[in-house]
Write a structure and sequence with these properties.
Layout: H1 2-12, E1 14-15, H2 18-25, H3 30-43, H4 46-58, E2 64-65, E3 68-69, H5 81-91, H6 109-114, H7 119-147, H8 149-154, E4 156-157, E5 160-162, E6 172-174, H9 188-192, E7 201-207, H10 211-220, H11 223-241, H12 245-253, H13 258-267, H14 276-290, H15 294-317, H16 328-342, H17 344-364, H18 366-382, E8 384-386, E9 392-394, H19 403-440, E10 450-456, E11 459-465, H20 469-479
Antiparallel strand pairs: 1-4, 2-3, 5-6, 7-11, 8-9, 10-11
Helix pairs in contact: 2-7, 3-7, 4-5, 10-11, 10-19, 11-12, 11-13, 13-14, 14-15, 14-17, 15-16, 15-17, 16-17, 17-18, 18-19, 19-20
């Protein structure tokens, strides 16, 4: 099934607007210009100008020349790591959160997230994102399109699909990778815009919601998980069958988010998608399926809650409408909560919160947790774990004497069983949809213009004549 689907998608290819791609890949194009403007905006900040002045003082630059005062050159360079160290750590006095091998401060993801409200860090983060977008998703794709004769001829990108490159058996693409194309963020649309179908055609994407949870229930037959999934599916089915306005509105009000349903299973308390407790339940669920420990879960819960409060303060400070502003009392309350979260007591509180949540989860999802423990024991004995349909993954780390290596292997056990299996679901749904098209239409002489073009784990992408959109939606959903 997987090979059949991958073969068809490689044959069909993904439609690309080659002129737009050429434009954003160009060194003098709008994307390159935006990168230069972002770099220049950082150099023109007060801190950037001070950094440049300090570099000039250490250089051989002479303020006065033969014809009077010379114009100050721009020595500070955003691409020079030493210059960045000078800006962030010496001038702005930001504390390094990690260090490189040469003992210089690291500008890693954690640094950029913790100091994300510092204007200079915000600009630098934007610059790095734009550079990555251009390098990985404009320049690289344009190179493939130009060098490959088929792609150059019909302007359709044809990555190589596979399932052996990832140890869990999950699908992957190379040359180039179409599974890492950004889908969120203000700059994502710059890249997504190149994947444009021709006139009278549309793109259709479908994927599974909270797929890891669903697959966990299928593999382990845990009744608590299966009941939550059934509850969600029943609500969606009621919505689909609703015919009158009253029935539709009632069905919409009864639609359930799976993570909210899980929280109700744990604590018998109903919450909605906006409730922060939903994120706690989601973190704990993924922690169990991926084998995380209470400490890492607590840290993640604390970090997300802390960042949410900090973002709320910044948003209120820059608000233009009264509804987004906070009173002085509310600001003081939030600042007090932030101080608590940054204290040792706050860290201990979230650690205990994670332990309590895991304890409830282990009790409510006892079938799943016992299944995982049993599979970890078998894997530790045999140094291999098998997926639901026999796909093996060797875990030789169990032979190591270090217990932390064993913890790492334990995290890989259920992940190895579920991740590839979840990916197979997506590919099976694509195959079944194609099979339905053949049995219902193609073999009877009716051509259905629906092309399967790409798949990312459990999601699929289609390029189709707009007249077949309702049919494509129905067939894809029926196949999932």
């Amino acid at each position: 099934v997987m090979i059949y689907v991958m073969t068809e998608m490689e044959h069909n290819g993904i439609a690309v607007d080659i002129e737009y791609l050429k434009e954003i890949a160009s060194p003098i194009g709008p994307l390159a210009q935006r990168i230069r403007e972002t770099a220049n905006s950082l150099a023109l900040t007060k801190a950037g100008q001070l950094a440049n002045k300090m570099l000039l003082e250490k250089s051989s630059y002479q303020a006065r020349g033969l014809f009077g005062r010379a114009k100050e050159p721009q020595l500070w360079n955003i691409r020079d790591n030493k210059h960045l160290q000078l800006l962030f750590f010496d001038i702005l006095k930001l504390q390094p959160l990690a260090f490189k091998k040469d003992e210089s401060g690291s500008l890693n993801a954690k640094f950029k997230k913790v100091y994300r409200h510092t204007p200079e860090v915000k600009v630098f983060t934007s610059y790095e994102k734009l550079m990555k977008l251009k390098s990985a998703f404009a320049n690289a794709i344009y190179k493939y399109m130009i060098n490959h004769p088929d792609m150059r001829h019909d302007h359709r990108l044809r990555p190589i699909f596979g399932y052996l490159g990832v140890l869990t058996g999950r699908s992957s693409t190379t040359s180039p990778s179409t599974q890492q194309i950004p889908t969120h963020g203000p700059d994502a649309k710059i890249i997504k815009k190149q994947f444009k179908v021709i006139k009278y055609r549309v793109q259709l994407k479908s994927d599974y919601g909270a797929h890891e949870v669903r697959v966990s229930g299928n593999i382990t037959k845990d009744p608590a998980i299966c009941n939550a999934v059934d509850q969600v599916n029943a609500a969606f089915m009621k919505f689909r069958l609703a015919s009158t306005t009253e029935d539709i509105l009632k069905a919409v009000s009864e639609l359930v988010d799976l993570h909210c349903a899980n929280y109700f299973t744990f604590f018998e308390v109903k919450i909605d998608k906006k409730d922060p407790r939903r994120q706690d339940a989601k973190a704990a669920v993924f922690a169990v399926t991926y084998g995380s420990m209470a400490k890492s879960i607590g840290d993640k819960m604390l970090t997300e809650a802390l960042f949410a409060l900090e973002d709320k303060l910044v948003k209120a400070a820059n608000a233009t409408e009264d509804k987004d502003k906070l009173s002085e009392k509310e600001v003081k309350k939030i600042k007090k909560e932030i101080r608590f979260m940054r204290s040792e007591e706050g860290q201990q509180f979230y650690f205990q919160k994670a332990k309590d949540l895991l304890e409830v989860l282990y009790k409510k999802w006892s079938v799943l947790t016992k299944f995982i423990e049993k599979e970890q024991g078998k894997a530790a004995t045999n140094n291999v774990v098998f997926g639901p349909h026999g796909r093996p993954r060797h875990l030789w780390g169990y032979l190591h004497f270090d217990k932390f290596v064993h913890f790492a292997m334990n995290r890989r056990v259920f992940n190895s069983e579920g991740q590839g299996y979840a990916s197979d679901y997506g590919y099976t749904s694509i195959y079944l949809a194609k099979k339905l098209i053949w049995e219902l239409f193609e073999r009877r002489g009716y051509h259905v213009d629906i092309l399967k073009t790409n798949a990312v784990h459990d999601s699929s992408f289609n390029d189709l004549d707009f007249r077949f959109l309702p049919l494509a939606v129905y067939l894809q959903e029926a196949s999932m």
